[in-house]
């Protein structure tokens, strides 16, 4: 595949107009701000002693609640947790808490460090979540675009022991419109801020780490997503399903950006799938 074809397949900004992109990102922020107004929770918590990154907890109260760890997209270089809480009201109504996570952004933060920080956020939920109304035995991770890649980085094996976690700390997962084999990005426009070489891209590709049993997953992607994101979602589902329970969900009439907003609507296919992941969990 030529570099020009890789750019065409992975530059999802070209799949929507600039006006629609700007409006959707603003809706992330507006709806996130609106839905957390009045929700019980804890804001601006530092989760990682080795960085200054923060997270917010929304929708707590009463017994320990299962928790959705929400990871924002932005091609690893944009957006924040403040764009990523719009599902918290929907989940609160179902008795589920939301943890919206920040991570350092490229190019200032290397992708290895971004992955480590997201895993550290999961570790914080496990080790300290009970102090904030969260059930450490019922953690589901999900995210969109770059957040889909980072979600997959928490699904694979081999990292948990470094954080004092059980292998099954992530009980279920929903990567949405993610990238799982980032080797093509070495020859793409995205490497302007990622700065990857082939060896690092190999190590950072969850697609190459699917040889062990992992959490139940819904691999979601928008019908009108970028070519690369559609093909990688299908391939990751096929790879994950070889050892673990996996469902591929292609969301009709959605693009790379607005599909994530479906988690604000309780009757959407995406929300029903996420709630189904929680329904399958039991206390451990």
Task: Describe the protein's architecture and organization.
- With 284 residues, the chain is an alpha/beta fold.
- It has a single domain (3-279), classed as Alpha/Beta hydrolase fold, catalytic domain (Rossmann fold, 3-Layer(aba) Sandwich).
- The protein contains 9 helices and 8 strands.
- The protein has helices at residues 3-10, 18-36, 88-93, 111-128, 146-155, 191-194, 198-203, 227-241, 269-279; strands spanning 41-46, 54-58, 65-71, 97-101, 134-144, 170-176, 216-224, 246-255.
- It has an 8-stranded mixed β-sheet, sandwiched between helices.
- Helix 5 (146-155) links the parallel strand 5 and strand 6 (170-176).
- Helix 4 (111-128) crosses helix 5 (146-155).
- Residues 69-178 form the Alpha/beta hydrolase fold-3 domain.
- InterPro entries: AB_hydrolase_3, AB_hydrolase_fold, GDXG_lipolytic_enzyme.
- This is Alpha/beta hydrolase.
- Keywords: Hydrolase.
